[in-house]
Amino acid sequence: MPKEFDARPRRRRAAAWAVWVLILLLPLEMIVFATSMPGRSHAGPLPPLTPEEIELRERLKAHVEALAGGIGERNAWHAGSLDRAAAFIEGQLAGLGYAVEKQDFSTTGEALRGVTFSNLTVEIPGASKAKEIVVVGAHYDTVPGSPGANDNGTGVAAVIELARVLKAERLPRTLRFVLFANEEQPFFTSDAMGSRVYAKAAKARGDAIAAMISVETVGYYPRAKGSQRYPFPLGFFYPDAGNFIGFVSNVGSRDLLRRAIGAFRSETAFPSEGLAAPALVPGVDWSDHASFWEQGYPAIMVTDTAPYRYPHYHSSSDTPDKIDYDSFARVVAGLAKVVAELAAD
């Protein structure tokens, strides 16, 4: 009589193989989770700018030239220039008919004792969901030694123009446009970072922020192969030319990211890429959106990827002549539709 068959070794081998398959597949699943986005990035020739986009281009260019050309370096060590930048922003928004709210704050550092910083806010009240808020923000300070045309004159210009384009809209959710001080070092992640001050105050007030978009360095779009770099291993999954706008979030804000890039792709003929990844991936948390994550709010960054593409990043050569204003205008026109959709969601 044959011995009774023992299936346990086979089961153990099958279980071991299953574990190895999971180990091998898990990184792939994580990559798919991080990079899979709705819709398709635009490919092929770009359509001519519309008359509205041409007007937008000229307005964006004027703002960048005023900030980076007329005012120049603007930070705590050039407090007069930082104040002039705030006054310029306030004047532009007031000229659009907004009442500008200033949130003043200071730092306890001995070297900057007596220096006051300001976040500037304007708002379009919502209708049926007025208590729910969509925040669109950008920082207006620069690193020492840089006039900051792209970082972040372009972000400031974009927020001003989004406030103009959307002013006549009456959407379900409230729209709030905020210009932050002190995003750059040494304030980044400190208690004197403008967006951190703002987000903490919003949380303390009980503000129901449904979405936050940080507009960060959005003016440079080279088309040459090899012009775009990434943290390893993302280069295997994204284009090697920097002619696209990036949408970036952490894992917790992935749903917001997918809604935003989906709206952009459905309305805008311009290349776009998205990434939802842990903040430990270098660059994912490098702007004001991270301050809102800290308070539990969903937030994303819209960016041209800054140091991964822009050769003039954080340098004295970050001047207005480096900006691709045609592409910049296309991106901002697309963002206006994204913001409107998020406020209507």
Task: Please render the helix and strand layout as text.
Layout: H1 8-35, H2 51-71, H3 79-95, E1 101-105, E2 117-124, E3 129-139, H4 149-165, E4 173-180, H5 194-205, E5 208-216, E6 245-249, H6 254-267, E7 272-276, H7 289-294, E8 299-303, H8 325-344
Number of helix segments? 8
> Main sheet: which strands, in order across?
1-2-4-3-5-8-6-7
The percent of residues in helical segments reads 25-40%
Quick one: CATH class? Answer: Alpha Beta
Q: Decide which structural class fits the backbone.
A: alpha/beta
How large, in whole angstroms, is the Cα Rg?
22 Å
Distance between the termini: 72 Å
Q: Give the oligomeric state of the chains in this entry, treating copies of one chain as homo and distinct chains as hetero.
A: single chain
Q: Which stretches are low in confidence, meaning pLDDT under 50 for 5 or more residues running?
A: 1-6, 19-25
Query: What portion of the residues fall into strands of 2 or more residues?
Result: 15-25%
Q: Count every beta strand, where a strand is a DSSP E run of 2 or more residues.
A: 8
**Mean pLDDT reading:** 92
Assign the CATH architecture: 3-Layer(aba) Sandwich
Largest sheet composition: 8 strands, mixed
Quick synopsis:
This protein has 345 residues and is an alpha/beta fold. The protein contains 8 helices and 8 strands, in the order H-H-H-E-E-E-H-E-H-E-E-H-E-H-E-H.
Describe the structure.
The chain has 345 residues and is an alpha/beta fold. It contains eight helices and eight strands. The protein has helices at residues 8-35, 51-71, 79-95, 149-165, 194-205, 254-267, 289-294, 325-344, and strands at residues 101-105, 117-124, 129-139, 173-180, 208-216, 245-249, 272-276, 299-303. The longest helix has 28 residues, at 8-35. It is globular. The termini are far apart. Residues 1-6 and 19-25 have low confidence and may be disordered.
